[in-house]
Every structure is written in C-alpha cells, then in structure tokens.
Amino acid sequence: MQDFALIASGGFAIPPLTSKSATTSSSWWRPEPFQHLSQSYLANSALTANGSCWRMPQARGHLGIGFRLPVIITHVSIEHLPSHPMDAPRDIVLWGYLEQVDNLQHYTDDKPPLEVIDETQKQNPNGSFIKLAHMEYSPFHDSHIQTFAVDENVLQSGLDFGLVVMEIRGNWGADETCLYRVRVHGKEIPTEV
Predict the structure, then answer these.
(1) Left (φ > 0), alpha (ψ -120 to 50) or beta: where does 51 sit?
(2) In whole numbers, what is the pLDDT of the chain averaged over residues?
(3) Bridge partners of 72?
(4) Strands 61-79 and 181-188
(5) Which of 16, 57, 74, 154 could be bridged to 186 by S-S, CB 3.0 to 4.6 A?
(6) pLDDT > 50? residue 75
C-alpha cells in the first residue's frame, strides 16, 4: 500500500498542529549538537522510511501531517520498536480535516485537542475535523507494524483530505511517547489539467 505520509511521497509534518518534541536532558536519542533542530524537522522523523524515533515529552500529543495532493484515506499504519514497549503509543485517534463542513454536522460527536482546532480555525474558519479511526496499538502484538482501517462510514462517503492529525491519547506507561513511523494509505485524488 502506498504511504502518503512518507516524506519521499510528499508528506510533511505541520508544526502548528504538532506537539513539541522532547528537549530535556533525558533525551538520550538526540545528541547535544542536534538540540537546535526545528520541531517540524524532528517530527518529520516519524514520516521517513528509516523510522527514527520522534519523542514527545509526555504520554499524550499529536502529529499534524500534510499531503502533496488530497487523499481518500483507507488505512493507517503505526510502527514502533518492540525493544521499548512502554513508550509505544496505545490509544490513538486519526482526525481528517475538512475544509467545508456544511453537510457534515453529524460527525461532531468528538473533537481533536483544542490547540489543534484553534490553529486550523485561524487558517480556515469554515473547516472542521472528523474522526477517521480510533485504534489501539499494541507493542506486544506479533508484528511491530500494525495497520488499522478507517471507519467504514467515512470510507464510503468518499471524502478526501489534504491533512490529518494523529492524536496520541496515551501510551503503555512511560513518561514520554515515542513514534517511530506513521503511514497513511489510500488513493490520491487526480488533479484536473
């Protein structure tokens, strides 16, 4: 399945919709010379093929992901190293951002974090988020790469998205959460010439 979140495919982290990266002295994974790197650069590590750890300084957080072109999203895959199970994300929600919401009022039963809503409202006051998938990643599963389907009602609606937010609502007991790789699968909407 094609990965639209992959940087090589045109995916990118959206800094205003992304939690801060861990910057404490306990961040053993980032040597001192790299402390100056931007938040978007660090978050992009979860969108690369090599799957470097993007560490959030708490159990909860979110990662905004933009796509080169709009995508009809069918699945999302999460990857984590089995050698560090406690800092793996556990409770995860994938939110899709719709630029026009006139006909989608029935999707307002749950919402992403307030800071994500506020930031997108600054850019487009007519947009709204809908929940695409609610999943539980398990580092104790047979595979360290786990794929989850988008909600069937959303899938059948044929909606396409230019950006998503992955909300991490908790992990397996660590103080920090590490995200090694996020993949977003589906089909790209062709552009008209």
Answers:
(1) left
(2) 81
(3) 187
(4) antiparallel
(5) 74
(6) yes
Beta strand spans in the chain (E): 12-13, 54-56, 61-79, 89-98, 128-136, 145-149, 161-171, 177-179, 181-188
Alpha-carbon distance of 19 to 39, in angstroms, equals 8
* Mean pLDDT lowest among 25-29, 66-70, 111-115, 159-163: 25-29
Of the CA atoms within 13 Å of residue 55, those in its CB half-sphere come to 19
pLDDT (tens digit per residue) in 140-166: 999 999 999 999 988 888 888 999 999
7 exposed, middle or buried (CB, 10 Å; 0-12, 13-18, 19+)? middle
Instruction: Decide: helix, strand or coil at residue 56.
Output: strand
Between 80 and 124, the higher pLDDT residue: 80
Name residue 66's amino acid: G
End-to-end C-alpha distance for the chain, whole angstroms: 26
Q: Regarding beta strands 61-79 and 145-149, do their DSSP bridges make them parallel or antiparallel, or are they unpaired? A: antiparallel
Helix (H) or strand (E) holding 117: helix 114-123
Distance CA 51, CA 46 (A): 6
Beta strands 161-171; 61-79: pairing state = antiparallel
